Structures are given as C-alpha cells and as structure tokens.
Amino acid sequence: MKKYILPLFGVLLFYTAYSQIANSSSASAVLSPEEAVRLALENNYDIRLSRADADIARLNNIKANAGMLPVVNLVANENFTLSSFQQKLANGTEFKDFGAPFNTANAGVQLSWTLFDGRRMFIAKKRLEEVESLGNLNLQNAVQNTTATVLGAYYEIVRSRLQERAIAEVITLNEERLRIAEARLAAGFAAQTDALQARIDLNQRRADLLNQQTTTDAAKRTLNRLIVRPPETLFDVDENIVNVYAPDRNTLLEKILTQNPAIVSLQKSADVAALVVDENRTLNKPRITGIGQFNALRSDNGSGFQLSNTQAGLTVGAGLVIPLYTGGNLRRQVEVAQVQARQAGLRVDAQRIAVQAEVDNQLSFYKTQQQVLGLEEENVKNARENLNVSTERFRLGQTNALEVQTAQNSLEQALTRRNLVQYNLKSAEIQLRLLAGEL
C-alpha cells in the first residue's frame, strides 16, 4: 500500500509547490501564439518599414514616372529696365533719352512629349511594375520572418516555464527527502550529513528556480519588444507544446520554388535586373520629342520708334536626338547592367541550393528529435519510478541518501532533456514552415 501512497503524496506536493509559482502570474491574461503574431504584424517596426517601402514602390509605378506622358508647364516672366536710349532711323529721325523705362512681359503654355525613344518608356513602365511586385514580396518576406521570430520567442518562454515546472517538482522531492533525513536523524538511524546534504541540495534547487524565473522574465520582455508593447507588460503563455506537424520533403521542395519569400524575392530582383539591361540598350536609339507651345508677349518702350508691341501665337514642332558618340559610356552602362543581371541570377541559384540544404537539415533534425522525445518520455517515467523506490528505501533505512540524491538528479536531467526536445521540435517546425512560406 505504501508504494502507492508515496507517489500520490509526491504528486500532490508537486502541484502545491507549482501552484505557488503560478500565483504570481495567475492574474495575467494568457497570450496565445496567434495573438502574439497578430500584434506583431500590426505593430512590428520591421514590418511597418517594409510596408512603407512597398507603398513607395506602388506610388512610383505610374506612366509619368516612366516618361510615357507629356509634360505641360506654364511659363511667365516680366522684366523692367531703366536705361539710356539712343536710336537713329534711316530717315534721319533720332531719339535720345536718359532713364527711359522699358517693360517686357510674356507668358506661355509649353508642352513636351516624348514620341519615340526606342521603346525605353515601355520597358521602364514594366520595370516599375516589377519593382512594385518586389516591394510586396519583401513585405511578405518581412511578415514571414517576423512571424517566425515571434513564435520562436513565444516558445522560448514556454520552454522556460516548463523548466520551472521541472525544478519545482525536484524541489518538492528534495523537501520530502529532507524531512525523511531529519526524521531518521532525530530517531538516531542516520548521520547528520544526510540531512545537511539534503538541505544543501534543496537550497541549490531553490536558487535554480529563482534563476529560471529570471530567465522567463527576460524572455517575456523580449517578446513584448517584438510585439511592440512596454517591456513590463504582464502576460502568461499557453504552456502546452503540441507537436503534430508531419512534414513531407517533396511537398516542401515544391513550395520552396513558389512560396519561399527569400527565393521569390531574389527571382523578382533578377527580373528587374534583366529589364534594366533592356532599358540601357535603348539609350543609343533616336529620341523624338513633340513640342507644342502657346505664347503671349507684350513689350512697352519708354522711348524710340516703337512704343509697344503685342504678340500671341501657337508653335508646334518636333525635336530629334541621335546619339553619335558618347565615348563608350552607353556601352559601359549596358555591360554593367548585364553583369548585375548575372549576379542576380547567381544569387537565386545560391539561395535555392542553400534553402534545399536547410530543408534537409531541419527534416533530419525534426525526425531525430521525434525519436528522442519518445526515449526521453520513457526516461522521465522511469526516473520518477526509480526516485519513488529510492525514497521509500531511504525512508525504511534500506539505502543511503546518496542513492536518493542520484535518483533526483536523474529525474531533473530527464525532465530538462524532455523539455528541450519538445522545444526543438517546435523550433524545427517553425523553420520548416518558414522555408516553405507557410507562416
């Protein structure tokens, strides 16, 4: 009967101790992973900056920025002059004046429109469209990376809280061990060293718990920073780590080519670089510009044969520019753009290989951790049973305190390893989903 009472007693003590730990945060609202991600997507500074860059690219994507629309200007000016004036006409008439006023005013509407530039304006418009798409992809990339970072920070808190649980359980068992050692010492069945060592171990575990709580608080401040909240904002987390993810390599590799934010973004950058090459190739083409202008002119002269003059009229024309010699500068621009385009293509290939290798690494790690988790779950179960047996043997005087101490250490290590494996599985899942663009 005793072998059933002792484990039940230990479990009750553990939950009593852990409830005291949880009381400090019981009044705090539980923050779910989904809510943490939502807050980050709304407030995170990196996402807001990326969204602003995407807005800039969208605003730049207009026909006028590509040079496809005319430019119309209203031009007006007036000049007033005082000057010495002397004029002699062919009929002998002569005009002389000192400080004569002269006033000239003109105004006009001028239109300039590029009619032909070797299709450069159309290529430029296509480039602006691709740049806008690139801005949206970069925003998606920022969203994916921020989501992964926030989830990683969230489950770091969960891991720390689980470690607090493990330490609290060991503290409860240490307290039981100390009571047994003191009772045996009082009855004269054990040496004082057993009680002293039990107290030393208990104080060490209590110090470990304080340090772990400090680690948890620091992790919470990190998450608050990521979701743009005051660092001191109180909250609790859902301490259940669910690992039901079942990744498939072929499916992941297919999604990488179409959804991985880094690869898709680099591919779009390569498309933009290719358009820059085409755009630079048109620089040596003829350029025809249509010109339209309506002008009104009036001049008033304070002296002379013609005292005033007023003109108004419409001017229509065209200008032709053909690059004949630029010292090789246009060829240089094309060649530089071609090199940059090749660089962009190389970046895509390199990123694709790197991501595929990372997928295989994370898959291998995930599958290994799944197997390790089963072993560690069994280790925790066996360590608890072993500790119960050792504690009961110690109570009955059938073993020494060293056996109980060793059993307690084994349980603590098994709990720590299990918690770490659970966290590793969730971290690998987050990374795989990020690589596949599923976050």
Using only C-alpha atoms, the radius of gyration works out to 40 Å
Count of strand segments: 6
- Give the biggest sheet: 4 strands, antiparallel
The helix fraction, in percent, is 55-70%
Unreliable stretches covering 5 or more consecutive residues: 1-26
CATH third-level topology of the largest domain: Outer membrane efflux proteins (OEP)
Helices and strands: which structural class?
A: alpha+beta
Order of helices and strands: HEHHEEHHEHHEEHH
Residue share in β-strands: 15-25%
Write out the strand line-up for the largest beta sheet, numbering strands in chain order: 2-3-5-6
Shape: elongated
> Whole-number average pLDDT?
83
- Kindly report how far apart the N and C termini lie: 52 Å
CATH superfamily of the largest domain: Outer membrane efflux proteins (OEP)
Number of domains: 2
CATH 2nd-level architecture of the largest domain: Up-down Bundle
**Which CATH class of the largest domain?**
Mainly Alpha
Alpha plus pi helix count: 9
